[in-house]
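We include this case.
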Amino acid sequence: MTSKSTTQLMVSGMVLGMIILGATSPAATAEVKKLAILIPEEPTDYGWNQQAFDAAKAVAAKYNLQFMPASGLGYGDVRPTLRELANDGASLMIAHASGYNTAAAEIGAETKVPVAIVEKASATKPGLVADYSLSGYEGAYLTGRLAAKMTKTGTVGIVVSAEPLAFNSQSAAFAQGVKAEKADTKILYAVIGPAAYSDAAGGRRVTETVIGAGADIIFGQGDGSSFGMLQATETTKSAEGDTVWFIDIIGDKSKVDKGTLLSSVVWNLVPTYSAMVEDLKADRFGTHPYKISLADDSIQLLQSKHIPDAVWSQVMDLRKDIIAGKIKLEPIFDAQKVRALVTSVDAKK
Protein backbone atom coordinates (compact mmCIF):
# COMPACT_ATOMS: atom_id res chain seq x y z
CA MET A 1 0.00 0.00 0.00
CA THR A 2 1.40 3.42 -0.94
CA SER A 3 1.86 6.29 1.44
CA LYS A 4 -0.85 8.20 -0.41
CA SER A 5 -3.29 5.28 -0.04
CA THR A 6 -2.48 4.99 3.63
CA THR A 7 -3.15 8.70 4.16
CA GLN A 8 -6.46 8.51 2.31
CA LEU A 9 -7.51 5.51 4.40
CA MET A 10 -6.65 7.34 7.62
CA VAL A 11 -8.60 10.42 6.57
CA SER A 12 -11.60 8.30 5.56
CA GLY A 13 -11.47 6.54 8.88
CA MET A 14 -11.36 9.83 10.76
CA VAL A 15 -14.35 11.19 8.82
CA LEU A 16 -16.32 7.99 9.45
CA GLY A 17 -15.43 8.16 13.13
CA MET A 18 -16.60 11.75 13.33
CA ILE A 19 -19.91 10.84 11.68
CA ILE A 20 -20.45 7.96 14.09
CA LEU A 21 -19.49 10.12 17.08
CA GLY A 22 -21.81 12.88 15.92
CA ALA A 23 -24.67 10.40 15.67
CA THR A 24 -24.18 8.98 19.14
CA SER A 25 -22.89 11.87 21.26
CA PRO A 26 -25.15 14.31 23.15
CA ALA A 27 -26.57 17.29 21.31
CA ALA A 28 -24.37 20.34 21.06
CA THR A 29 -24.89 23.12 23.56
CA ALA A 30 -27.85 25.24 22.48
CA GLU A 31 -27.30 28.86 21.55
CA VAL A 32 -29.86 31.05 23.29
CA LYS A 33 -30.44 34.44 21.66
CA LYS A 34 -34.07 35.43 22.17
CA LEU A 35 -36.40 35.01 25.15
CA ALA A 36 -40.17 35.25 24.63
CA ILE A 37 -42.89 35.33 27.26
CA LEU A 38 -46.65 35.13 26.75
CA ILE A 39 -49.00 36.48 29.42
CA PRO A 40 -52.82 36.78 29.39
CA GLU A 41 -53.10 40.29 30.84
CA GLU A 42 -50.98 43.43 30.85
CA PRO A 43 -48.02 43.46 33.26
CA THR A 44 -49.61 45.97 35.61
CA ASP A 45 -51.29 43.72 38.17
CA TYR A 46 -48.47 43.50 40.73
CA GLY A 47 -49.08 39.76 40.45
CA TRP A 48 -49.12 36.82 38.04
CA ASN A 49 -48.55 38.81 34.87
CA GLN A 50 -46.23 41.52 36.16
CA GLN A 51 -43.96 39.24 38.18
CA ALA A 52 -43.43 36.97 35.17
CA PHE A 53 -42.94 39.85 32.74
CA ASP A 54 -40.45 41.65 34.99
CA ALA A 55 -38.55 38.45 35.73
CA ALA A 56 -38.29 37.49 32.05
CA LYS A 57 -37.12 40.98 31.17
CA ALA A 58 -34.48 40.87 33.91
CA VAL A 59 -33.25 37.45 32.78
CA ALA A 60 -33.07 38.61 29.15
CA ALA A 61 -30.87 41.51 30.27
CA LYS A 62 -28.81 39.23 32.50
CA TYR A 63 -27.91 36.92 29.60
CA ASN A 64 -27.86 39.62 26.91
CA LEU A 65 -30.87 38.13 25.11
CA GLN A 66 -33.42 39.87 22.94
CA PHE A 67 -36.61 40.23 24.97
CA MET A 68 -39.79 39.26 23.10
CA PRO A 69 -42.87 40.00 25.24
CA ALA A 70 -46.43 39.18 24.19
CA SER A 71 -48.92 40.57 26.72
CA GLY A 72 -52.67 41.05 27.00
CA LEU A 73 -53.34 37.86 25.04
CA GLY A 74 -56.41 36.82 27.00
CA TYR A 75 -57.26 33.20 27.69
CA GLY A 76 -58.17 31.99 24.19
CA ASP A 77 -56.15 30.28 21.47
CA VAL A 78 -52.54 31.54 21.47
CA ARG A 79 -51.28 29.25 18.71
CA PRO A 80 -50.95 32.11 16.17
CA THR A 81 -48.86 34.14 18.63
CA LEU A 82 -46.65 31.16 19.45
CA ARG A 83 -46.04 30.50 15.75
CA GLU A 84 -45.22 34.16 15.16
CA LEU A 85 -42.71 34.22 18.01
CA ALA A 86 -41.15 30.98 16.77
CA ASN A 87 -40.88 32.37 13.23
CA ASP A 88 -39.24 35.50 14.64
CA GLY A 89 -36.46 33.37 16.08
CA ALA A 90 -37.40 32.83 19.71
CA SER A 91 -34.95 30.50 21.46
CA LEU A 92 -37.35 29.88 24.37
CA MET A 93 -41.05 30.63 24.70
CA ILE A 94 -42.45 30.88 28.24
CA ALA A 95 -46.22 30.31 28.12
CA HIS A 96 -47.24 31.82 31.45
CA ALA A 97 -50.86 30.70 31.84
CA SER A 98 -52.37 27.31 32.59
CA GLY A 99 -54.72 27.81 29.64
CA TYR A 100 -51.75 27.96 27.29
CA ASN A 101 -50.11 24.65 28.19
CA THR A 102 -51.74 22.46 25.52
CA ALA A 103 -51.23 24.95 22.68
CA ALA A 104 -47.64 25.71 23.71
CA ALA A 105 -46.66 22.05 23.84
CA GLU A 106 -48.19 21.51 20.40
CA ILE A 107 -46.53 24.51 18.77
CA GLY A 108 -43.23 23.75 20.45
CA ALA A 109 -43.27 20.31 18.83
CA GLU A 110 -44.37 21.78 15.50
CA THR A 111 -41.70 24.50 15.37
CA LYS A 112 -38.98 22.72 17.36
CA VAL A 113 -38.69 25.74 19.65
CA PRO A 114 -38.38 24.94 23.39
CA VAL A 115 -41.36 26.00 25.49
CA ALA A 116 -41.97 26.32 29.23
CA ILE A 117 -45.50 25.63 30.40
CA VAL A 118 -47.40 25.62 33.68
CA GLU A 119 -49.60 22.92 35.19
CA LYS A 120 -49.05 20.14 32.67
CA ALA A 121 -46.16 18.00 33.81
CA SER A 122 -47.36 15.14 31.61
CA ALA A 123 -46.36 17.14 28.51
CA THR A 124 -42.71 17.41 29.54
CA LYS A 125 -40.28 16.40 26.79
CA PRO A 126 -36.48 16.59 27.10
CA GLY A 127 -35.06 19.41 25.05
CA LEU A 128 -38.46 20.75 24.07
CA VAL A 129 -41.06 21.10 26.85
CA ALA A 130 -40.43 21.94 30.51
CA ASP A 131 -42.99 22.30 33.29
CA TYR A 132 -42.89 24.97 35.97
CA SER A 133 -46.10 24.45 37.94
CA LEU A 134 -45.11 26.96 40.58
CA SER A 135 -46.67 27.29 43.99
CA GLY A 136 -45.95 29.50 46.95
CA TYR A 137 -47.64 27.06 49.32
CA GLU A 138 -44.85 27.33 51.89
CA GLY A 139 -45.42 31.07 52.11
CA ALA A 140 -49.19 30.60 52.10
CA TYR A 141 -48.89 28.35 55.15
CA LEU A 142 -47.02 31.13 56.95
CA THR A 143 -49.70 33.68 56.08
CA GLY A 144 -52.28 31.27 57.46
CA ARG A 145 -50.42 31.25 60.75
CA LEU A 146 -50.21 35.06 60.56
CA ALA A 147 -53.94 35.41 59.87
CA ALA A 148 -54.90 33.17 62.79
CA LYS A 149 -52.66 35.21 65.09
CA MET A 150 -54.21 38.52 64.03
CA THR A 151 -57.93 37.84 63.46
CA LYS A 152 -60.23 39.47 65.99
CA THR A 153 -63.47 37.90 64.78
CA GLY A 154 -62.09 34.36 64.72
CA THR A 155 -63.07 34.11 61.05
CA VAL A 156 -60.84 34.47 57.98
CA GLY A 157 -61.66 34.21 54.29
CA ILE A 158 -60.12 32.79 51.13
CA VAL A 159 -61.28 34.39 47.88
CA VAL A 160 -60.04 33.03 44.54
CA SER A 161 -60.68 34.06 40.95
CA ALA A 162 -60.50 30.42 39.80
CA GLU A 163 -59.09 27.09 40.96
CA PRO A 164 -55.86 26.41 39.06
CA LEU A 165 -53.35 24.10 40.71
CA ALA A 166 -51.18 26.92 42.07
CA PHE A 167 -54.13 28.62 43.76
CA ASN A 168 -55.46 25.34 45.14
CA SER A 169 -52.16 24.46 46.75
CA GLN A 170 -51.85 27.90 48.31
CA SER A 171 -55.46 27.88 49.55
CA ALA A 172 -54.89 24.50 51.16
CA ALA A 173 -51.63 25.57 52.79
CA PHE A 174 -53.21 28.78 54.10
CA ALA A 175 -56.05 26.76 55.65
CA GLN A 176 -53.55 24.31 57.17
CA GLY A 177 -51.59 27.22 58.63
CA VAL A 178 -54.72 28.73 60.14
CA LYS A 179 -55.73 25.44 61.75
CA ALA A 180 -52.20 24.76 63.02
CA GLU A 181 -52.15 28.13 64.77
CA LYS A 182 -55.70 28.15 66.13
CA ALA A 183 -57.85 25.13 65.32
CA ASP A 184 -61.22 26.74 66.07
CA THR A 185 -60.77 29.58 63.56
CA LYS A 186 -63.50 29.61 60.91
CA ILE A 187 -62.34 29.63 57.29
CA LEU A 188 -64.74 30.87 54.59
CA TYR A 189 -63.96 29.95 50.98
CA ALA A 190 -65.37 31.63 47.88
CA VAL A 191 -64.69 31.31 44.14
CA ILE A 192 -65.51 34.27 41.90
CA GLY A 193 -65.88 32.14 38.77
CA PRO A 194 -64.32 29.37 36.68
CA ALA A 195 -61.82 31.79 35.10
CA ALA A 196 -62.54 35.20 36.63
CA TYR A 197 -58.89 36.22 36.75
CA SER A 198 -59.48 39.78 35.52
CA ASP A 199 -62.91 40.34 37.11
CA ALA A 200 -62.19 43.17 39.56
CA ALA A 201 -65.89 43.92 40.08
CA GLY A 202 -66.55 40.27 40.89
CA GLY A 203 -63.57 40.22 43.22
CA ARG A 204 -64.95 43.16 45.16
CA ARG A 205 -68.50 41.80 45.29
CA VAL A 206 -67.51 38.33 46.50
CA THR A 207 -65.02 39.67 49.02
CA GLU A 208 -67.65 41.99 50.49
CA THR A 209 -69.90 38.95 50.92
CA VAL A 210 -67.16 37.05 52.73
CA ILE A 211 -66.50 40.05 54.99
CA GLY A 212 -70.22 40.30 55.67
CA ALA A 213 -70.14 36.69 56.81
CA GLY A 214 -67.63 37.56 59.51
CA ALA A 215 -64.13 37.44 58.00
CA ASP A 216 -61.74 40.19 59.03
CA ILE A 217 -58.72 38.88 57.09
CA ILE A 218 -58.91 37.94 53.40
CA PHE A 219 -56.39 35.71 51.64
CA GLY A 220 -57.00 36.71 48.02
CA GLN A 221 -55.80 34.97 44.88
CA GLY A 222 -56.41 36.53 41.50
CA ASP A 223 -54.80 38.66 38.82
CA GLY A 224 -56.81 41.78 37.95
CA SER A 225 -59.60 40.55 40.23
CA SER A 226 -57.35 40.98 43.27
CA PHE A 227 -57.66 44.75 42.94
CA GLY A 228 -61.38 44.36 43.61
CA MET A 229 -60.60 42.21 46.62
CA LEU A 230 -58.24 44.85 47.98
CA GLN A 231 -60.84 47.60 47.38
CA ALA A 232 -63.41 45.61 49.34
CA THR A 233 -61.12 45.55 52.38
CA GLU A 234 -60.54 49.29 52.03
CA THR A 235 -64.23 50.18 52.00
CA THR A 236 -65.76 47.56 54.27
CA LYS A 237 -65.33 47.22 58.03
CA SER A 238 -65.40 43.96 59.93
CA ALA A 239 -68.38 42.80 61.95
CA GLU A 240 -66.74 44.44 64.96
CA GLY A 241 -66.14 47.70 63.11
CA ASP A 242 -62.40 47.18 62.70
CA THR A 243 -60.09 47.15 59.67
CA VAL A 244 -60.32 44.15 57.37
CA TRP A 245 -56.84 43.03 56.29
CA PHE A 246 -55.84 41.73 52.87
CA ILE A 247 -53.16 39.11 52.21
CA ASP A 248 -52.12 39.03 48.56
CA ILE A 249 -50.09 36.59 46.47
CA ILE A 250 -47.28 36.66 43.88
CA GLY A 251 -46.53 40.41 43.88
CA ASP A 252 -46.31 43.50 46.07
CA LYS A 253 -49.23 45.96 45.89
CA SER A 254 -47.73 48.35 48.46
CA LYS A 255 -47.67 51.17 45.89
CA VAL A 256 -51.46 51.10 45.56
CA ASP A 257 -52.30 50.12 49.16
CA LYS A 258 -54.54 52.48 51.12
CA GLY A 259 -53.85 50.89 54.48
CA THR A 260 -55.26 47.35 54.46
CA LEU A 261 -52.49 45.30 52.79
CA LEU A 262 -51.22 43.06 55.58
CA SER A 263 -48.82 40.84 53.64
CA SER A 264 -48.23 38.96 50.39
CA VAL A 265 -46.72 35.66 49.31
CA VAL A 266 -44.25 37.11 46.81
CA TRP A 267 -42.87 34.99 43.96
CA ASN A 268 -39.41 35.82 42.62
CA LEU A 269 -39.22 34.13 39.19
CA VAL A 270 -35.76 35.36 38.21
CA PRO A 271 -34.03 32.22 39.57
CA THR A 272 -36.59 30.02 37.75
CA TYR A 273 -36.20 31.65 34.35
CA SER A 274 -32.42 31.84 34.80
CA ALA A 275 -32.35 28.09 35.41
CA MET A 276 -34.30 27.54 32.19
CA VAL A 277 -31.73 29.48 30.17
CA GLU A 278 -28.85 27.67 31.85
CA ASP A 279 -30.51 24.31 31.21
CA LEU A 280 -31.04 25.13 27.54
CA LYS A 281 -27.37 25.93 27.20
CA ALA A 282 -26.37 22.72 28.96
CA ASP A 283 -28.89 20.45 27.14
CA ARG A 284 -30.84 19.78 30.36
CA PHE A 285 -34.05 21.60 29.47
CA GLY A 286 -37.18 19.53 29.97
CA THR A 287 -35.48 16.93 32.15
CA HIS A 288 -36.85 18.21 35.47
CA PRO A 289 -39.57 20.53 36.79
CA TYR A 290 -38.89 23.98 38.22
CA LYS A 291 -40.03 25.00 41.70
CA ILE A 292 -39.88 27.99 44.02
CA SER A 293 -39.22 27.79 47.74
CA LEU A 294 -38.52 29.66 50.95
CA ALA A 295 -35.02 28.21 51.09
CA ASP A 296 -33.67 30.21 48.13
CA ASP A 297 -35.89 33.26 48.68
CA SER A 298 -37.80 32.65 45.46
CA ILE A 299 -40.76 32.70 47.89
CA GLN A 300 -40.77 35.70 50.20
CA LEU A 301 -43.24 37.18 52.67
CA LEU A 302 -44.07 40.87 52.47
CA GLN A 303 -43.60 42.59 55.83
CA SER A 304 -46.00 45.51 56.18
CA LYS A 305 -46.01 48.06 58.96
CA HIS A 306 -49.33 46.62 60.12
CA ILE A 307 -47.74 43.41 61.44
CA PRO A 308 -46.59 43.73 65.07
CA ASP A 309 -42.87 43.03 65.49
CA ALA A 310 -43.50 40.16 67.92
CA VAL A 311 -45.90 38.47 65.49
CA TRP A 312 -43.48 38.91 62.56
CA SER A 313 -40.67 37.38 64.64
CA GLN A 314 -42.84 34.35 65.40
CA VAL A 315 -43.71 33.91 61.71
CA MET A 316 -40.03 34.14 60.74
CA ASP A 317 -39.21 31.44 63.30
CA LEU A 318 -41.82 29.25 61.61
CA ARG A 319 -40.15 30.00 58.27
CA LYS A 320 -36.88 28.66 59.67
CA ASP A 321 -38.67 25.53 60.84
CA ILE A 322 -40.06 24.88 57.35
CA ILE A 323 -36.64 25.32 55.76
CA ALA A 324 -35.06 23.05 58.38
CA GLY A 325 -37.71 20.38 57.80
CA LYS A 326 -39.16 20.65 61.29
CA ILE A 327 -42.50 21.60 59.73
CA LYS A 328 -43.24 19.28 56.82
CA LEU A 329 -45.64 20.46 54.13
CA GLU A 330 -46.98 18.66 51.08
CA PRO A 331 -48.84 20.62 48.40
CA ILE A 332 -52.52 19.80 47.84
CA PHE A 333 -53.63 20.55 44.28
CA ASP A 334 -57.13 19.07 44.22
CA ALA A 335 -59.95 21.61 44.60
CA GLN A 336 -62.22 19.19 46.46
CA LYS A 337 -59.50 18.53 49.03
CA VAL A 338 -59.15 22.28 49.50
CA ARG A 339 -62.87 22.56 50.20
CA ALA A 340 -62.58 19.79 52.77
CA LEU A 341 -60.14 21.92 54.75
CA VAL A 342 -62.40 24.97 55.13
CA THR A 343 -65.44 25.68 57.29
CA SER A 344 -67.75 26.98 54.57
CA VAL A 345 -67.77 27.33 50.80
CA ASP A 346 -70.80 29.58 50.50
CA ALA A 347 -69.69 32.50 52.69
CA LYS A 348 -72.59 32.11 55.09
CA LYS A 349 -72.32 32.32 58.86
Summary: The CA atoms of residues 159 and 190 lie 5 Å apart. DSSP finds eleven helices and eleven strands in the chain. Residues 3-24 form the longest helix (22 residues).
